[in-house]
Amino acid sequence: MEDKNFQFKTNLNCTSCVAKVESELNNTDGISEWNVDVANSNKTLTVKAEGISEEEVINIIKKKGFHAEPLPIKA
């Protein structure tokens, strides 16, 4: 699987919400970097993936009680 960057629209509204998913995202093989822009209206989660699928990232977020839907990556 090739390295990719994914972006997701989420409902991670604040730093407390981000903290709830932080450990899981930090400790998942296949995620090298991630960031949530809580100031953006889409609450955009950006993930640099190295061998993990978009669906696997979505499942991590859902497992923590939040929502994520893929956004197209802007060139």
TrEMBL record:
Q: Which Gene3D superfamilies match?
A: 3.30.70.100
Domain HMA, first and last residues per copy = 3-69
InterPro entries, per database record: HMA_dom, HMA_dom_sf
Q: Transmembrane ranges?
A: none
**Molecular function (GO) terms listed?**
metal ion binding
**A family per Pfam:** HMA
Q: What is this protein called?
A: HMA domain-containing protein
Species of provenance? Elizabethkingia occulta
The upper taxonomy is:
Bacteria, Pseudomonadati, Bacteroidota, Flavobacteriia, Flavobacteriales
